[in-house]
Specification:
The complex is a heterodimer of chains A (138) and B (116). Chain A is of the alpha/beta class and 138 residues long. Chain A has helices at residues 22-35, 66-77, 85-90, 96-101, 119-127; strands spanning 8-13, 39-45, 80-84, 114-116, 130-134. Chain B is an alpha/beta fold and 116 residues long. In chain B, 40% of the residues are buried. The chains are: A alpha/beta (138), B alpha/beta (116).
């Protein structure tokens, strides 16, 4: 890829915050991509990555709140963020609709993330120029 | 533009294999071509007569046997890994192509997913 070529990216995050470096590496990549004129089509949280969409993340005050940092980034750049529904439900990340469906005592999906199926990722594979993965080791 | 989904973790050790399989099935459901490749300890997914109920899990063998029905193009397994884990025609589920894992093989695919 030459420096002049502008790309559309989808970022897939599968590593959880505070268990892995994945969310912060992905955020650094996303900021650099936008700064260089590239586009981010969407961010898709999969597997343990869905923990990034928890509204209840509360690290100590001298640590970065990566969930909040991602919420701010997505909101300020109007980028869609999705948490895979199967991954999210397994790991206790639910929105109001799923709370009602499964009669759960609470919901905790942070805005602006939404719950979606793998179809969003399939669409990325078909239409984004590059799909970049940020795993547990990355 | 075919996608290669690689499974390299043993079944039942974590959820990456199941979630990789979900990705492959989703691609197939949307008519996107996809092949599954089993490497390393992941080849144990292909073993016949898994007794998953002993660890209170669902057998992945059943999920995998449905792969052709869902439209997954091919199931492939790395030859060396099969040797290492003692997998052969007798104890491996049918319909698997045993192949040599190489950079050339990976390069045939436009998109490669490896969750591990």
């Amino acid at each position: 890829m030459s420096p002049q070529t502008l790309c559309s990216f989808t970022l897939v995050i599968t590593g959880a915050p505070y268990s892995s470096q994945a969310p912060q590496t992905a955020l650094a990549f996303a900021r650099a991509a936008l700064a260089n004129g590239h586009r981010i089509d969407r961010v898709f949280l999969y597997g343990d990555g869905v923990h990034l969409a928890s509204a209840l993340t509360s690290p100590p005050s001298d640590e970065v709140n990566w969930s909040q940092a991602w919420q701010d980034f997505l909101g300020s750049h109007d980028i869609a963020g999705f948490a895979c529904i199967a991954s999210a439900l397994r790991r206790g990340i639910v929105d109001q609709s799923e709370q009602q469906r499964y009669e759960l005592p609470a919901n905790n999906l942070a805005t602006p993330f939404t719950i979606a199926g793998l179809g969003e990722w399939v669409d990325s594979v078909a239409h984004s120029d590059r799909v970049i993965y940020f795993h547990n080791g990355g | 533009m075919e996608t290669l989904v690689i499974i390299s973790h043993a079944p039942y050790c974590d959820w990456t294999g199941r979630e990789s399989l979900d990705m492959a099935f989703s691609l197939a459901a949307f008519d996107q071509p996809v092949t599954l490749l089993f490497t390393g300890e992941g080849v144990n997914w292909l073993r016949k007569a898994q007794q998953a109920d002993a660890v209170q899990q669902k057998s992945v063998e059943k999920n995998l046997s449905a792969a052709p029905i869902f439209g997954v193009s091919a199931l492939m397994a790395d030859h060396k890994a099969c040797e290492r884990y003692g997998l052969n025609k007798e104890n491996m589920m049918p319909g698997v192509t045993v192949t040599a894992l190489s950079a050339d093989l990976i390069e045939r695919y436009a998109h490669v997913v490896n969750l591990s």
